Amino acid sequence: MRTILLIEDETAIADAAGYALETEGFRVLRTALGQEGLALLQSDPTIALVVLDIGLPDGNGFDVCRAIRRFSELPVLFLTARSDEVDRIVGLELGADDYVTKPFSPRELAARVKAILRRVQPAAEESASNGFELDEGRARVRWCSQWLALTRYEYLILKVLISQPERIFSRAQIMDQVWQEPEASLERAVDTHIKSLRQKLRAVTPEYDPITTHRGFGYSLAVRPRAP
Ligand code: CA
Fold this sequence. Notes:
The chain has helices at residues 11-23, 34-43, 61-69, 83-91, 106-120, 125-128, 152-163, 171-178, 188-204; strands at residues 3-7, 27-31, 47-53, 55-56, 59-60, 76-80, 98-101, 132-135, 140-143, 146-147, 169-170, 211-214, 218-221. Mean pLDDT is 86; it is low at 123-128. It is of the alpha/beta class. The structure holds calcium ion. Calcium ion binds next to strand 4.
């Protein structure tokens, strides 16, 4: 399930938009404050798109969008009440993906969100739902919008974990899928690669480790972030 972050201070609008998005199967995180929205973005790698109001109690959506762009390329859809704001959205090259003018139909908003997500992650929708995107053609993985610099073994191990989130893979099962001659390698090699993989993921999200160690069994990948 993909998560939409909704930053909107008008309760009636947030209620209607949130309901329409949930009806389409999205998980919706809501906040009325830009700063809180930025904090949520940094702590929840499942967020796939931001719906951002321009007039917020603690500042404006333009500044929030700029702040988002410093660490993320997630799509941003602006909610705007005035036509001069539309000119700024279009003219400032803020990296916004679309906008909806108030008053808007919640169903139209949900349709726009779906259209943007289809456009930005056509092949990776499934794996992006837990913050990971797998690009098998180029043997690379994106975690929370950032491409990871992985060794061949780290890439192959992560690919196994991504293939079935929440499933616990034993070291032997990982080795069977990753190593061409598993019997020639030590199971400890899996631990070593997992350790360096974790360091690379932590460099992107210091507060969140999506890999779970199951003592005596093996490893699994979380579908959703654990509570901080
Ligand atoms: Ca507002």
